[in-house]
């Protein structure tokens, strides 16, 4: 009897250990969670959700959940803990976490472009030189949009943030709140992802100071990359391929059906943020973005070097192994 009880106990312990598992893995490939942000650069995520594209490429019966994120730090934590199995995030957070030891891979891009530098309409800023001594806002310290802005300011105009003992005061906040912060005079300048730049412009709270093509890495850097864990890449290639196939399908849908994709973006952004954007805002934002799943490690490396130059990264970064193009080449 004791032997039977001991055997049963060991079986229960084994089952418990399996259930706990590695925090970096999903509990079951019968259920996955995809993450993205309510930004125009992440429309591929919205289209894939609305059109149920992951359900089409994954094995029958796979449950697909979605989680929406306010910033890259929260997204990367979710990837590393296995809360989500993949999704879209800015290259900055992906790069920063990779160089800190995170076991992740970039398996595709989501889009390029879409970052705009804006000035509050009554801040007395008529040229870039007028930014000196002003307060600027970005989604997070060291995020993609922050690095783009600070790189431009330092390399082209010799200005630095207060973090580097410069004159520019840096604060952070959600892009959807920038219009309100402009209206209340809380910030003077914003490095803004679309569609929020076009929204601020249409509502009259701010004006474009530096458009996408003149922002650092403005038209070459992926504004969003598709990230998953290295564990899945190494141990469940079929799952990753299925996920990337859906992402590629969504991207091609956007390229071939821009008007329908715009309507999906308007709907999803309203669902997630409770803010309804006009068609004109989306049209304007769309003109600043190129939707593509192509990604090059060399472009990300150049961006990483800029992040190191700004001291967001302590050591000289080496992104070798971050990008795995094999899934988009299938």
UniProtKB/TrEMBL annotation:
Segments traversing the membrane: none
GO molecular function: ATPase-coupled transmembrane transporter activity
A GO term from the CC aspect: periplasmic space
InterPro entries in the record: ABC_SsuA_sub-bd (IPR010067), NrtA/CpmA_ABC-bd_dom (IPR044527)
Annotated Pfam families: NMT1_2
Cellular compartments annotated: Cell inner membrane; Periplasm
Keywords for the protein's UniProt record, in alphabetical order: Cell inner membrane, Cell membrane, Membrane, Signal, Transport
Keyword Cell inner membrane in record: yes
Leader sequence segment: 1-19
Family: Belongs to the bacterial solute-binding protein SsuA/TauA family.
Name by which UniProt lists this protein: ABC transporter substrate-binding protein
Species: Pontibacillus marinus BH030004 = DSM 16465
């Amino acid at each position: 009897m004791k032997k039977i009880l001991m055997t049963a106990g060991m079986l229960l312990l084994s089952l418990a250990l399996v259930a706990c598992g590695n925090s970096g893995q999903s509990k079951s490939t019968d259920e996955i969670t995809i993450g993205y942000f309510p930004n125009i650069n992440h429309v591929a995520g919205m289209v894939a959700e609305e059109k149920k594209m992951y359900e089409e490429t994954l094995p029958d019966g796979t449950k697909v959940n979605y989680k929406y994120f306010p910033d890259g730090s929260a997204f990367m934590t979710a990837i590393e803990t296995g809360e989500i199995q993949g999704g879209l995030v800015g290259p900055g957070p992906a790069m920063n976490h990779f160089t800190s030891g995170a076991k992740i891979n970039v398996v595709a891009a989501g889009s390029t472009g879409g970052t705009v530098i804006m000035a509050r309409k009554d801040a007395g800023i008529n040229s870039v030189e007028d930014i000196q001594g002003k307060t600027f806002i970005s989604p997070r310290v060291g995020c993609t949009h922050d690095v783009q802005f600070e790189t431009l300011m330092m390399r082209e105009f010799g200005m630095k943030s207060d973090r580097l003992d410069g004159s520019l005061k840096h604060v952070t906040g959600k892009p959807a709140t920038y219009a309100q912060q402009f209206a209340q005079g809380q910030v003077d300048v914003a490095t803004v992802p679309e569609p929020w730049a076009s929204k601020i412009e249409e509502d009259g709270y701010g004006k474009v100071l530096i458009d996408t093509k003149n922002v650092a890495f403005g038209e070459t850097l992926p504004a969003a990359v598709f990230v998953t864990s290295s564990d899945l890449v190494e141990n469940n290639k079929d799952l990753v391929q299925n996920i990337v196939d859906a992402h590629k399908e969504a991207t091609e849908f956007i390229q071939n059906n821009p008007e329908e994709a715009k309507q999906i973006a308007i709907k999803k952004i309203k669902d997630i943020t409770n803010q309804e954007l006009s068609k004109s805002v989306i049209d304007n934002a769309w003109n600043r973005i190129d939707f593509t799943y192509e990604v090059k490690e060399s472009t990300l490396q150049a961006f990483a070097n800029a992040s190191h130059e700004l001291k967001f990264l302590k050591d000289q970064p080496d992104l070798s192994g971050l990008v795995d193009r094999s899934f988009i080449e299938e």
